[in-house]
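Need tokens for this chain, all 88 residues.
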Amino acid sequence: MKKKSTNIQSETDWQRVMSMTDEEIDTSDIPELTDDFFKNAHVRWPGNKKQLTLRLDPDVVDYFKHLGKGYQSTMNNVLRKFMEAHQH
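Here are the structure tokens for all 88 residues:
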């Protein structure tokens, strides 16, 4: 598997993005959620979580803890997105 470089600097103006109000965000390309959407929607529940012991670098743990309450669920969500992006 060819590794992608993660050293590329983002061109996004994050300071501008983070200072935007909800009203300033363009949501015109997001389709309306109609009754049909919810009628056909279903909950996807992956099941009960497994408890395990995991060794992580201290700076990684500190980063997620800094995000506040629910940091372990956030870590799980990040791992899930990684898994989904790499499934064939």
